[in-house]
Amino acid sequence: MVTTANLNNTAQLSLPDPDSIARRTLDNGITVLSRDNFLSPSVVLTGYLRVGGVDDPPVQAGLAGFVADMLDHGTQNRTFDEISEAVESIGASLGVSGGLHIASFGMKCLAEDLDHVLEILADVIRNPVFPEKETEKVRGQLLTGLQERDNNTRSTANLTFLELAYPQGHPYGRSTDGYVETIDAIDREDLAAFHDGYYRPTGAIVAVAGAVDPEQAISKVEEVLGDWQPAGPRPPQEVPEIRFPDGESQLTETRREFREMRDKSQTDIVLGIPGISRKDPNYYSARTANTILGTFGIGGRLGDSVRDEQGMAYYISSRLSAHLGRGPWRVFTGVNPANVARAIDTILAEIHRIQDEAVSEEELDDAKSYMTGSLPLGLETNEGVASTLLDMELFELGLDYVQRYPDLINAITVEQVQQAAQRVFPRDAYALAIAGPPMREA
Amino acid sequence: MENGVRRKNGVRRTVLDNDLTVLTKEVHHAPVASFWVFYRVGSRNEVSGVTGVSHWVEHMLFKGTPQFPKGEIDRQIARNGGFMNGMTWLDFTTYFESLPADRFDLALRLESDRMINSVFDRSEVDAERTVIISERQMRENHPAFLLSEEVQSGAFKVHPYHHHVIGWQCDLETMTRDDLWRHYRTYYTPNNATAIAVGDFETEALLDRVRELFEEVPRGPEVPEVKFEEPLQRGERRVTVRGEGQTAYLQAVFHTPAADHPDFFPLVVLDSVLGGAQSMAFFSGGGTTNRTSRLYKALVKTELASGASSSIYPTVDPYLFSFTATVRAGRTLQEVEDVVWQEVARIQEDSVTDDELTKAIKQAKAQFAYSSESVTNQGYWLGFTSIFADHTWLDNYVDRLAGVTADDVQRVAQTYLAETNRTVGWYVPLD
Question: What's this model's pTM, rounded to 2 decimal places?
């Protein structure tokens, strides 16, 4: 074996821990977390509000996302142009974007501009007015984006997959960006009513990382958001259970669809099933199994087989989207139209292999080393720290999560990996979406 | 720069006996470090028949050496908690590893080894051929790629900037193992490379180790000079791409000077005023929005386009100032194109305002501060600038932008954004 020269001289790794993270829940229910980093004169603030695409009425799919996109387009105190000028003229950024369960907001600026940008961010979240002209401008951008999406093989395959993988009518099977007819059907009163009805401080989380004292950071957030008290509670965020017509909570037969897209060179494939939530007791072993199957190195075992050995694809990987609910587990790849059947067979064979045979101790050890060893690099930037703080709070991981995490991963056994692969990856029933040029049957 | 002199920004330049340039910078904010090797070779060095060879060689350098057999490179980096990648561009090919600081030696061993010992096994070359063709086909699925390939090859008749880095399909089908091997042996020499280390290490110990590992690699012959010079363009060129979809795209490009030309900085300011501030983040992507830029106001605010931007890249040889716009449903390419030319004419006639100049400088300063948060990003910028200038380019970046006057911006707009110097591309959807 080769020797490793000792080149570094930093005594102790300083990761976010209960001593360095400040946390306080404001009177109106917003939880703020903060950790300092004075090595660059900038600050990142990010946050989650508990409102998202699952709150969309089906005939108005995309409503929550449309609202989020509109927030910085004019408030009771500032026009769109004033917001844009204030933010861009100091090289800052600010934005809100809609997700499935949450709306995320974020800003980044030089530390000297923190108060100024924070005040604008709070204004945008609390006091949007959805000006008619801005609404039409953004609607046109959204519709053009949907046109582009429908001409894109990867997003077409993914959207088709979600429709197949979830029971009809389930919000996880819908696009959070909506569809041409639903975006067309939303008017500015709908946007304003949705904001009035659903935007609440309760359960919101804010994380601040950068060149600011953590206690001060919390006080600054309290100054601009602490008195936010909209009238009345929002309707509960009810996500229906995943229940198929046969009464099962998982697919029991394969659902397959091919979307023909002329004039394309490559075919995109998405294969998977509804997965598990972040709080599932099998989460860590499932993530480890997924690392071995589809992410370690260049795409794990799938990458070794489909890309490296058979030269079929430039990209292939699998992803476990465990969130507040049972997000999907999926394999993504793009191959030449002639190789579609062979690629699918190879993917299924690799899934079956990790279910049927225990992984080697060495393979498991590689995966563990990667999952635990990559922590410092993920926490190098303010964005990385802020996003970790948000997840600690959203998934109730505790302020000592970064310290506990290596033990959680290192405790996983080959048996647990195999069990998780059997439980979380599909066997004989799955959703399979293919989008690309016409295929000749082999 | 003198050998071994530490600069005010903490970058130290050292040249080894085999003429490998080494840039080092200690950063101790986190126990991580990033190592990069930049080779002065890219699509600029390719001729017809072997287009795409630089990028393919980059892929082959992940296929192993006797010391790090196939699969071991990815495995070693991943199991040590790092990430790595390779990238090929017009003027360079680069490789990097970012690792926890106590594992950093691995990056040095890997890069010194594959500079000379990469195996170009014939069966691996064949397997990678279809991977690369797959990468090309993935891009072909995007109308904007098809358009930009057509526009770029329309703008350059002679210079190798003519073709995209990925290369033409026919060359990817016919290139041989020996073509790849020859390219590797010609350009992967210490005298044609710069190694960069940024992060949590002690410089003397690191340099000792770099010497120990890299001085084993012998100096190579001088690399072939690129002698192509693009002839003066004497009139507008227009290209059209027709394809599926419902969305139309506009791209227009103008020949502009290389990074070392005094007009480059006024062009950067022009780009910032027209299209918005460029992010300097190599990884975390989009920085600020461009909603106060002239193109946004003229095209997006007026509901002609759903997005519009401009760009200029620092390059070794003269390259392009570029405009792109996505036409909104219900509007036409001609409407969008007319407005772009109106905006160009406004600057040619009246220049830019002092407020716009001030904003461009402040935005550049902020992007500069953000970009220094990660050692990986710092390593990238030190290497990238060493390709077209030297690593001190960044030290003076903000100051040189601040020295640009409204007259300079007006003059470069008149000089370069001229009708005779432009190539205009339309993507016309069939639906």
Answer: 0.93
